[in-house]
Amino acid sequence: MMSGSNSGRPALVLVAHGTRSPRGVELVAALAEEVAASVGPTRVAFVDVLGPSPSEVLRELDAPAVVIPAFLASGYHVHTDVPREVADSGNADVHVTPALGPDPVLAAVLLHRLREAGWQSGDAVVLAAAGSSDPRALTDVRRAAAMLAELTGDRVEIGYVATGEPRVPDVVARVRDESGRRVFVASYLLAHGLFHSRLADAGADGVAEPLGVHAELVRLLVSRYRAGVEAVRVTAGAGAAPRHRRRVLPVR
Predict the structure, then answer these.
(1) In degrees, to the nearest 5, what angle opens at C-alpha 22 toward C-alphas 18 and 26?
(2) Which of the residues 27, 35, 53, 90 has the least number of beta carbons within 10 Å of its own beta carbon?
(3) What is the pLDDT of residue 235?
(4) What is residue 154's predicted lDDT score, i.e. its pLDDT?
């Protein structure tokens, strides 16, 4: 998929995990469309489940690109899959931004989704993350929970949906037993899919929607892209870069 028409600027390649859920795929496509309205040519690639892969998209472009890993924590996909895909593409002019999360913007979107689900001040919150075996990703999830806790004014517990312990249903049950309060699940997932569907059986009083297409998330993506474009310009001014070089930009 390609959207936008500002061909004079580097293309944006939004890299997501991938899902068999048609609703999830449509959501990622809709997010790309919203971003494209501000930045121009935007492509979507997936590292798992379905294609096209990042390397396929970057080979097709054969032009400067800014790659944004649309992951909420920096685990295996961010540290291993994305760099490998960039190298395999043979595209010499690719700038890779940090992963989307954790970020205060995402915490604000999580709070909005919780309120949509019926959460009120005083209700307990469990942050539901996919999970990872990478300690760096788990650290990112803890940071995300701390950011959300600053906004709710209360502790936010963490539960995992796919990898790691404790599992979301166990955390929900423990928090309810200990506090006697209503418990809501904040879905720390980008889109609908298998992981989000599991949250319906978590036993919570309410489950928030995934981050999805939200104006603040779109603005965050646009900001990351523009930081990447500035890096492209700086590199171009300094001369050509070696082939297969991957540049990781600082978090803005």
Answers:
(1) 80
(2) 90
(3) 62
(4) 98
CATH 3.30.2010.10 fits 2-100+213-248, yes or no: no
Crossing angle (nearest 10°) for helices 22-39 and 215-238: 60
- Sequence letter at residue 227: A
Residue ranges for the chain with pLDDT beneath 70: 1-8, 233-252
Domain with CATH 3.40.50.1400 in the chain: 2-100+213-248, 104-207
Other Cβ atoms less than 10 A from the Cβ of 149: the count is 16
CB 45 within 8 A of CB 3: no
Chain centroid offset of residue 146 CA: 17
CATH of domain 104-207: 3.40.50.1400
Taking every pair of Cα atoms in the chain, the longest distance, rounded to a whole number of angstroms, is: 63
Q: What is the pLDDT of residue 105?
A: 98
Contact 123, 183 (CB under 8 A): yes
- Tell me what percent of the chain is helix, strand and coil, each rounded to the nearest 5: 45, 15, 35
Tokens of 3: 């959207």
Write down the pLDDT at residue 237.
59
